[in-house]
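SAMPLE LOG
Freezer: B-3
Tube label: C17
Construct: single chain, 227 aa
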Amino acid sequence: MQLTNIIYEEHDCVAKIIMNRQKALNALSTDLLLELEDCIKRAEKNDQVVAIVITGSGDKTFSVSADVQEFKGMSTSEVKKYITLGKTVMREIRNSTKPVIALVNGVALGGDCELARACDIQIAAEHAKFGQPEVKLGIIPSWGGTQMLPQLIGFGKAKELIFTGDTIDAQEAKRLGLIDEIASKSELWGTSSKLTSKIKESSPIAVKNAKLAVNKAWELLSEPGFT
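STRUCTURE (predicted):
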């Protein structure tokens, strides 16, 4: 697949997937989702790749969820296909045998907050913000947010964020357990590189099986919204 919305690079055993729609604030259009799925599969097929990093271009947004302009023009059947596609992509990320790191370089709202959580590890910039504002658009989180968020941060807080559509900053997100690490804007990629370097020192087969075991444990606790 020719990539027009994503920059894909493989270097030093790490696949970098950079969502690149800065004019649209890296919104998750249908085309971008299809390219994201393709890139995950590329990385998965390459035995030389030991880790995957997903981020957005620029330093303002990881992504601002669905492409609202595209969404407005969709029929009911097209909306259903779009939601199904998003679920498929989240499942591909979650079930990848490689560790997937979300490098959240700015705002991550709605589907992109869910995208970050579908990854195994989340590193966020100090200025990053998170939220599930779907109710303000007359919809609900549909890519795992209603299942995963309560398990991560507690039912009460998850309901508060989902019902109000409020956003939280990186510090609050880390306190709640929504993300794993915070780094300054200038140190974001360096923090990711340190982590992937440690992963590269581990046995790829052991890492793969460890991820499968952890995912299985999660599924036993709660059936995520990826089906």
